[in-house]
């Protein structure tokens, strides 16, 4: 039985079910050869034919099961959404931040740092799922503004620096621009629990920032319990273009 983390066909790493409300047999997967998301659906004895509008880019066999490798609904970067909408609602930013913090916290548990965290590397799917790309998918203006102060000053990036970068990314989603100057103030109250949570990630003292796991808990504590609708015209589907698996 396939499980999260399983490598199918020596190429497709299962990441989890392909969105809420989707049949449990359909998986999100990472094509480790082309570094992009795909969907995997087992081809059972009974018909399991995808929609004619869903391109099939590969067919693989694993443990006596044949899988159809399908195009995954197109994701958009946070940078693209901010270019279009300016800012995102605080409740949406809290949910987004909690999802990203969970991914990064798991990596920190394994001693792994992400190459960089900024709006150009945050991918948001139509179902609201968010993940981090290892390479920039879109240019984030003023990329240095997403670096922790100690890294911008020539220091070596570490786990607290990544907490800052996540906070800077979320701050940009709230304010429409990366943090600078006054964003680092820790005194007073902004009146917004989400903003207060994000500012804690942006503390100039690395030792005063929460761990990534604590950041996830903090952001979940200020996020609404029910899913928040995507911004109108947000992570919409776009034409697939050339999606051949090579």
Structural key phrases:
3-stranded antiparallel β-sheet, 246 residues, alpha+beta
Structural class, from secondary structure content?
A: alpha+beta
Major beta sheet, specifics? 6 strands, antiparallel
If strands are numbered along the chain, what order do they take across the biggest sheet?
Answer: 1-2-3-4-6-5
Let me know the number of strands.
9
Distance between the termini: 27 Å
Strand content: 15-25%
Descriptive account of the structure:
The protein is α+β, with helices and mostly antiparallel strands. 28% of the residues lie in helices and 17% in strands. It has six helices and nine strands, in the order βββββββααββαααα. The strands form two sheets. The protein has a six-stranded antiparallel beta sheet, with no helix packed on it. A hairpin with a 4-residue loop joins β3 and β4. The longest helix has 20 residues, at 90-109. The protein is elongated, with a radius of gyration of 19 Å.
């Amino acid at each position: 039985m396939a499980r999260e983390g399983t490598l199918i066909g020596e190429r497709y790493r299962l990441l989890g079910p392909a969105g809420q409300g989707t049949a449990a047999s359909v998986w999100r997967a990472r094509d480790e050869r082309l570094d992009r998301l795909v969907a995997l659906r087992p081809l059972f004895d009974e018909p399991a034919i995808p929609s004619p509008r869903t391109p099939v880019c590969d067919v693989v066999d694993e443990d006596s099961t044949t899988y159809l490798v399908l195009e995954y609904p197109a994701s958009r970067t946070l940078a693209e959404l901010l270019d279009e909408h300016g800012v995102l609602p605080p409740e949406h930013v809290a949910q987004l931040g909690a999802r990203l913090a969970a991914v990064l916290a798991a990596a920190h548990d394994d001693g792994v740092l992400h190459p960089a965290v900024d709006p150009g590397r945050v991918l948001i799917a139509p179902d609201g799922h968010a993940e981090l790309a290892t390479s920039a998918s879109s240019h984030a203006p003023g990329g240095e503004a997403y670096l922790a102060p100690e890294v911008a000053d020539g220091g070596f990036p570490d786990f607290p620096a990544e907490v800052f970068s996540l906070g800077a990314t979320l701050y940009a989603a709230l304010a429409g621009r990366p943090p600078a100057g006054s964003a680092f103030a820790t005194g007073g109250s902004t009146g917004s629990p989400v903003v207060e949570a994000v500012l804690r990630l942006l503390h100039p003292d690395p030792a005063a920032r929460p761990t990534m796991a604590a950041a996830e808990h903090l952001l979940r504590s200020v996020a609404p319990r029910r899913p928040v609708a995507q911004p109108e015209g947000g992570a919409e589907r776009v034409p697939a273009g050339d999606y051949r698996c090579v």
